Each structure stands twice: as structure tokens, then as C-alpha cells.
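hiii, so i know i said id send this last week but things got crazy w the move. better late than never?? heres the sequnce for the chain we talked about at the cafe, plus the structure i predicted for it. fair warning i was half asleep when i ran it
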Amino acid sequence: MVATQFRRKEDYQASFAKVEKAEQVASAVRETYEMLFITQGTAEYWVEDQYYKVREGDILLVPAGAMVGATLKARGCPFGRHSVWVTRRFLSFLKQQDTEIDFAFKQADQNKSYLLRLPAEEAAALQEGFAAIVQEHDEAWLNAEISCAALLAVLLVRINRLIHEKGADAMLQGDANRLSEVLTYLHEKCTEPIAVEQVAERFSYSASHLAHSFKKQMGTSLYHYVLLRRLRIGQAAMLNNTPVKEAYLRCGFGDYAGFYRAFIKEFGVSPQQYKKKNQ
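okay and structure toks below
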């Protein structure tokens, strides 16, 4: 059933990447559920308003709809990571088999804690699971379609059980950072009119210094970051059955036309197409 209804590269993907030089990953809204396993090196990740300095063996769990950005370090040591993601559609299918298959993602989302840091032995065992999915995903072996999906389900179960067994301390909240207070403020006020000068004054920055620091840290401008936050609120409203032409009222746009243009420019589909695809 999985093999006929779902396809690799459309509903679930797995990959391994090694970065040989420092790289900025601009903040963006994730449209899929994603698991990242750090195999080598260090990096700084933002997930929502949580800031993490990740290291080898760490696992980041990113729910669909979350905003993510990163600075990948590669000074003297490459940065390596396994990445596995699944669409809302595929995860909904898995939930028909077990309603708690998304347990880890729900815990991450509810507690605003996105980093799983395990003892070396447990991390190494999970790394083998990530590597197996990547290998199966990339090969044209017999039954690879259903095998890859099955390996993915098993990996989700293993991570769910680890988090369940370890309890509230399993997932870590982020560290403090110079932009943490700014991000929290933007999250709270993003549906209201916001100007760089206003935010800079509130946090005792000059406007130019805040704009430069924000762009360097987040990989995008403060204005674009606020725009992404607003669009994300609109996406969530549509997925919760709010009519498309009312969703823009939830997220700070002055009119539907402005929301429509920004949505297409950012995501490549209209709000109506997005809602139809993801419901």
C-alpha cells in the first residue's frame, strides 16, 4: 500500500551532506517534518526562537511549519549531517496505523524544545538508522520504495520511545543569544506594524547595527523574517479550516491582495493551492 500511494522524493526524503566551508542557511518556514542527525563538526541552528550550538551526535526535530535557520561551521573540520523529512500527507497516513507516531514532533512543538542529545552509544545506534534510510533512499534496489518507508517508520518509533522513556528532560531548550529577546519580541508582535528603528530602540541598538546583526545571524533581513512569521500564521489558519480569504486577517496583512502576492512569491503556490495540497 505504501509503495503504490507514496513515493520517495515526493512524500519522504533522506540525504547526507558534508559542508567543507562555512555556510549560512537563511531562515525559512519548513513545509515538512524534519529530523537532522549531526555526524561531524559544529553549527548554530535557530528553530523558532530557540538557539542551539549543535555537535556530533545531536538530533534536531523540526515540526512542519517551524521556522529554521543555521550557520554551519567548517573551520578545520567539515560539517556533516543526515537529513530525513516527511510530508504532512505521509505522516497523516502513518498516524492511521498508530496515532502516536508523531509523538516526538508533538513533544518538540508543545515544549518548544527541539534538540535531542543522547549518550554516545544511543546516538551511534540511531546514526546507523539514519544511514540505512539514506542508503535505501538513494538506491534502485528491489522493493526500495516500501523498504525505505518501513525504515523511516522504525526510526520514528525508536526516537519516540527514547523521548518517552527519558521524560521531560529528553529534549533541550536553546541557549541564550544576543538576538533571543529580539526574536521573542518579533514573534509576539509580528502581526502588528513593525519597523527596524522601533525594534532597535527597544533593545538599545542602532538601526543599522540591528539590521546588520540580524542579517548576519539569521541569513535574512528583519523585514523578511517578520513577513515569514506572518505567512506562517496564515498557513496555520488555513490548515485549521479558516477560509483562505479570511486567513490574511489573522496575520497582519492590510488586504488579501498583499497576502496573496507575498504567499505566491515565497512558496510558489497560491493560498488556495497550498490549502488543497495539505488538507
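btw The chain has a mean pLDDT of 91. thought thatd interest u
miss u guys!!
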